[in-house]
Amino acid sequence: MLSSIVRRLNDRRDAAADLGEDAGFTLIELMVVLLILAILLAIAIPTFLGVTGGANDRAAQSNLNTAITTAKTAATQNGQSYGTQGGGTALTAASLKANEPSVVFINAATTAQGNISFWVSSDGNGIVMASPSTNNKGCWYTVDNIQFVTGNATTNGMYTDVTASPGVTTSTSSAPTAAGTFYGYQPNATSCNAAAPSGVTTLQWGSKFPV
After folding, report:
1. Cα–Cα nearest to 113, from 177, 41, 156, 55
2. By the 8 A CB rule, do 173 and 200 touch?
3. In what order do the strands lie in the sheet with 180-186?
4. Nearest-5° Cα angle at 66, 92 to 95
5. What are phi and psi of 85, to 5 degrees?
6. Cα separation of 74 and 90, whole Å?
7. Based on the number of CB atoms within 10 Å of its own CB, is 71 exposed (0-12), middle (13-18) or buried (19 or more)?
8. What is the pLDDT of residue 40?
9. In the 3-class helix/strand/coil scheme, how is 129-165 assigned residue by residue?
10. What is the rounded (10 degree) CA torsion for 48, 53, 59, 63?
11. Which among 89, 155, 146 has a CA at the least distance from the CA of 122?
């Protein structure tokens, strides 16, 4: 559409030049072109940002899937435990990195896309992994519990809602304690920290990543 308008304007300018008139555009013609450009940009920029944001989210989820698969494999080799309870050694950033060099594992908070923050429960039964996305400062989570997670809720990372019976917590600031794999998302996070529930106020858990 824009190219057609410009072509017509050029045709008018050429015709005016053939008649000996000033070969230029009027102010109204230029304003119309600028208005059309503004409308096109208003449509294109949000679409571009939406596609980019979605790509960042998918990348964060992909990193988490790779990381949790690596952790599960390590737990299998470690006597079905993420800690020392299976007779092996607790998972560390170095041991996870050795099994999956493409992912940066951090046992602390992180804001860098591509990094994975992780925390192993005090009883070795569960692991929490968090991956930041630059889209809406989002933080994606994956939790894998080999068995029901027990332990001291005050010193157990994000496993703060440790109840007397197995079940998926309804708390938005605690990782699920039931056996299984769970997925969550927290928008507008200051950082992703699998070791601490502070600031996690809108996190919901499910059997797959939220849409």
Report:
1. 55
2. yes
3. 104-106, 115-120, 126-133, 138-145, 180-186, 204-206
4. 20
5. -65, -20
6. 10
7. buried
8. 74
9. EEEEECHHHEEEEEEEECCCCCCCHHHCCCCCCCCCC
10. 170
11. 155
- Structure tokens belonging to residue 46: 């949000």
Residue corresponding to tokens 């690596």: 70
Please give the mean pLDDT across all residues of the chain. 79
How high is the pLDDT of residue 4?
63
Q: How confident is the model at residue 17 (pLDDT cuts 50, 70, 90)?
A: low
**2 pLDDT exceeds 60?**
no
Which are the contacts of 71, defined by CB distance < 8 A and separation ≥ 6? Answer: 82, 91, 96, 118, 127, 129, 144
- Which amino acid is it at 132? P
The per-type count for the chain, helices as H runs and strands as E runs, is: 3, 6
- What pLDDT, in 10s, does the model give residues 158-180? 888 776 555 565 566 788 888 99
